Amino acid sequence: MDLTVLWFGIIAFLFVGYFVLEGFDFGVGMSLPFVSKDDTDRRVVINTIGPVWDLNETWLIVAGASLFAAFPEWYATLFSGFYLPLLIILIALIIRGVSFEYRHQRPEKEWKRRFDRMIITGSAIPAFLWGVAFANIVRGVPLDSGHNYTGTVFDLLNPYALLGGVTTLLLFFTHGAVFLTLKTEGELRVRSRALAIRAGILTVLVAASFLVWTVLSYGTLPAFVLAAAAAVTLIASVIANIKGREGHAFTLMALTITFAVLTLFASLFPDVMPASNDPANSLTIENASSSPYTLQVMSWTALIALPLILAYQAWTYWVFRKRVTRGHIEAVEHSDVPAAD
């Protein structure tokens, strides 16, 4: 296999992993005001992702580093042209991470409410902007002959990209609500399932519109097949959640995000950054890639490192697989052990 094709596939795999895992993190953060009735509920919600949220974010770091090493021209064009949205995403992720760590440091309600708002905002902004960014990549942006972005930030706010942002926002929101049904008990679990059902129905309508637009305007046969698979698994996830089969619902939701991301990459291939003004200026997997020797070294490194990373992440999720309950939070509050969200 051509190493450029291989690394295009690896980049796609890394972003699939990031959006599936960080997606439910974002969804849990956005669900905070909808499922929580008091501070104990909010602490339960936050603790469902407490052991794993930072581990999930490492997928973005690995994806970014791999993109820089394997496709430096793509990385340079993307991060220069999309500088402001990516900077906003970075700031939002920092605010969100700080909130997880500082929320429990003081007992005042206003202190906690302030950080709760930061968690919600820091989850919603990246969930929306990632969709905007990837939709623009698929749609194409104006590039000059040197592959430099020649548009403005307002060119990125086109109807297709905004629909892509709403789609990822709703997908992650629903994914997080389904995750909460897996990790909580009692009334919180019931509220989470009800939220997942309502959000899931809306997500079906919006995601279907975006996938149809993508396939008809930019798609290929593989993209059509993947989009159809995403639609089927999304509908099946909503049905499974209605029937109370939360494990099936979560798995199907993860598959939905997987197929949706792969639809975008399939629509993109063999380009990595299409030029909307002149196809001759487009970046492809060939003219954007590193040297064959660099890709060969990276391939051997990935062959050794990726299985270890996947094994460690699987082990982490296994260790923290149990549900988080109000009883656990209340027990910690009455113990001498400092409480941690």
What would you note in describing this structure?
- Helix 6 (109-139) crosses helix 10.
- This protein has one domain.
- It has a two-stranded antiparallel ribbon with strand order 1-2.
- The protein has 341 residues and is mostly helical.
- It is built from twelve helices and two strands; from the N terminus they run H-H-H-H-H-H-H-H-H-H-E-E-H-H.
SSE topology sketch:
Layout lengths: L2 H33 L3 H11 L3 H18 L1 H10 L1 H20 L6 H31 L19 H25 L2 H33 L2 H22 L3 H23 L2 E3 L9 E2 L7 H28 L6 H8 L8
Antiparallel strand pairs: 1-2
Mean pLDDT: 91
Number of DSSP E strands: 2
How many separate domains make up the residues?
1
Give me the side-by-side strand order of the main sheet. 1-2
Largest sheet: 2 strands, antiparallel
What attributes characterize this protein structure?
341 residues, mainly alpha, 12 helices, transmembrane helix, Cyt-d_oxidase_su2, metal ion binding, heme, transport
In brief, what are we looking at here?
With 341 residues, this protein is mostly helical. It has one domain. The chain contains twelve helices and two strands.
